[in-house]
Structures are given as structure tokens and as C-alpha cells.
Amino acid sequence: MARELTIARWRDFEELFAKYRGVQAGCWCMFYHRGGPNGPLGSADRQEANRRDHRALVRAGHAHGVLVYAGPVVVGWCQFGRREDLPRVEHGRKYRAARAELGTPPRWRITCFFVDRPYRRAGVAGFALHAALRAIQRRGGGIVEAYPATRGGAVAIWFGTEGMFRSEGFRTVRPFGRSNVLVRRTVG
Predict the structure, then answer these.
(1) What is the DSSP string of 37-54?
(2) How far apart are CA 188 and CA 182, in angstroms?
(3) Residue 152 above 80 pLDDT?
(4) CB-side exposure of 19: number of CA atoms within 13 Å?
(5) pLDDT tens across 2-38, in order?
(6) Three-class SS of residue 123?
(7) For the chain, which domains are there?
């Protein structure tokens, strides 16, 4: 079962992320919400600021995502959001270099996935991606962009795999660094 993150489900999100110290150096899925760094990676202050700020964005309707459950336990996560709510992508060197050939800017972005260790390689991320696309459709759809990994390993944990996106109808637009591609799909 998948459910959208709301302030009423914040404790579920917090439970999954706290289990892994906020995931990825205490990010709490805030990296793409910020225009730039907010302190040293992994510092306790930065981790707490990320947790607190993500909660505030959820409350204000500026942070979106899908939680995946196995029974009552949250086991996975997919972050999506409007282009303006995830500005860090725009500021990146790789994105600036690609902007001219991309045409119409995306309305939505899918930036991050996280799956609880015992549930990895069981289709949780693909299920979360599908649920995120349904949530985007309910919000009016439009061009959706993502940056999946072309190689396995740690990178694929955060961005999903190219095959996962291809199976949902995304097309590869261009390479995006050494181990990612930029993909797009229009959701009606």
C-alpha cells in the first residue's frame, strides 16, 4: 500500500528516516528543496534543521512524497515535487548545461527514493514510483522529469534505476553525468 506524505503521516516518514539517521548524511530528503548547502554534511545541527524544515514544508504543502507500507510498517519512500519546490536541480552545473536542449521546463520532478534495507530488491521503489505518478496525475499532471542511475550500487538507491522509469513510460532525454540519465514523461 502507498500513501502520500501528509502532516498526519509525518511520524511514519520520521520513523523510517530516523532509523537511518535521516538518510544520506542526515538529509531528511531536503537536499533538492534547498538552493545550496546549509552547514557541514552530517552535523547534528544540519540533520535537525533538515528534519524540522522538511516537516514545515510538508505542513505548508511544499514537500511531496509517497510512503510505501508493508502492513502497518513504512518501508519505502519516493519524493516528488513541483519544479519550484525542488530548486537545487536548476542550480546544478549538469542541469544548466542541458537546459537549452530540454525545451519546455518540467512541471514536476522525482528526485529521491529510499527503501528500508530488508525490503530492497523487492520492487518497493518501482511501486513508489507508480504511486508518485498517480499522485502527480491527481494534481493535474504535466511534464515529469527524473535523474535515474544507469549503474547499480549505492547511487541507484537514491535515484532509482533507468529500467524502473522506462517501465513507467519515461524516455531518456540525455546523459546526466557519469552514472545518471535525465528522463521525461508527460503525465495526463
Answers:
(1) --SSTT-HHHHHHHHHHH
(2) 20
(3) no
(4) 14
(5) 999 999 999 999 999 999 988 888 899 999 999 877 6
(6) coil
(7) 2-187 (3.40.630.30)
